[in-house]
Structure prediction request, 582 residues.
Amino acid sequence: MNVVVFVKQIPDPAAPQALDPQTHTLVREGKLIMDDSDAYGVEMGLQLAEAAGGGEVTLVSMAPAGETSGLRTALAMGAAKAILVSDDALKGSDALSTAKVLAKAVERAQPDLVIAATESTDGYTGTTPVQVAELLGFPAVTFAKKVSVGDGRVHVERQTEAGYDEVDCLLPAVVTVTAGVVEPRYPSFKGIMAAKSKPVDQLTVADLGLEAGQVGAAGARSEVTDVTAAEERSAGEIVVDEGEGYENIVRFLEQLKLV
Amino acid sequence: MSIDKVWVLAESAEGKPTSTTLELLTQARSMGATTEAVAWGADTASVAGVLGNYGATTVYDVGDLADALPGAPVAGAIASLVASGNRPDVILVPASYDGRDIAARLSVRLDVPVITNVVNLTTDGDEVRSQHGLFGGAQVATARFTGDHPWIFVVRAKSFTAEPADGAAAQVVSAAVPELGATNGAKVLARHAEERTGPKLDEAEVVVSGGRGLGDAEHYAMIEELAKLLHGAAGASRAIVDAGWVPYSHQVGQTGKTVKPTLYIACGISGATQHLVGMKGSKNIIAINKDQDAPIFSVADLGIVGDVHKVVPKLIEALKARS
Prediction:
């Protein structure tokens, strides 16, 4: 059971975020970290490989300047190796271009299953994994809250508007997982040490057989034209509760004629 | 490249078009173009009346998908229509679980990008611009396509107000699903609907939501009790649905439901971007949270800095005493 897990390396969401005033893209300076949403996919991949009694987890990531800090975190959790696509030509890639790059990287790994988060924390476009599935001719099951594998198929409980569906899917497939799917392990000291020497195969756009004009800002066919401050809600009343705070709520409900 | 034809992906639930579908039809009509819909399901003919009433002149019927997930077959059917020369200029897609899957596959099939998380659209001649909330809605980005039609916009629920056009029932035209191969390899074995009492979360006038600040799963009962007293629905933050305290169908936020009730009460919710995008359009917002620096207070009309375990039970008691 060989699993590819997509890992996005992003600026720390806890740090203040900003857009480049010229390009309107997210400023990605300084150290990047593994998107927290991807830790669930890494854990799921490791558990499925373990349950299958063999196979390994390969990480696939696209990041600027050979960035590997986030990948090392996932390698420390137990992934065997990583493919990193890093190329100046990728700057400004839209979701479709990103999917084309990731699909080419997946082809190199030939996995039984591809796992991704339902969406990234920084961009939350949420279409890339299924775009990869379509490019590879794979089925896809999104919003998985439970995943198991057996008899060459993946069985998923998929979140829906009304509840959930039980879905059975042929392999190879793409599955996107929610944060409820598993509890990610913390890397052990041994894992962190081992991660330093695990192989990271760094590739360029040309290595993948893609042309620079197809990806990055050159290949993007949409743009952000401007960014403005949103109309602010007028500041509300803030009350520190000293036992009677609920009375303010009751008065508010009365004004709205809800009681 | 003028905007002459707009397609809306028409999703149905329980035999009726979803509210987002009707919102998108209303928006499509206002773009001054021919409005058509693409629908799937066992009985498209029965929804053609409502779709027509909201402005669709034609409904392309992908047919009964039986146990298949909609992503591959619906995207395939649309791509076949486009390949046959029936090319829309804009495709509006509801930002639902299935809508995102269809848009993603369609993007690859037509080799055009998608713009997602749209909360507003403006049309000026041949130009269509989309708006998006950033950083929890503190900033608004405007985007546009620079390439060929069709332009695929994935639009969040409640971005527009649905208004009927008194149109006649739409003409139903069959749209064939091409050979899909392995892409259609996912089958639904069983569907589970979680039980619900009271109004639907995304239609309720009052929504009371709980978050991590409740401490543990059993304290969610007071959220449900308060919601019931106010004839509202009980919601939740992503943190507590992921933790398994309450079912996913209760989730309000980016990956859950978008709500715009008359009153939203956030109990023990810090107000991460993920949550704010799903509820900041509420007409009135009350927040109860221990941390006075919690981002939820920046959108609250009334903020109570205090312990939900103290404030909410007293509120419930006071409301019970009045009824």
Q: What stands out?
A: DSSP finds seven helices and 13 strands in chain A. The two ends of chain A are 59 Å apart (CA to CA).
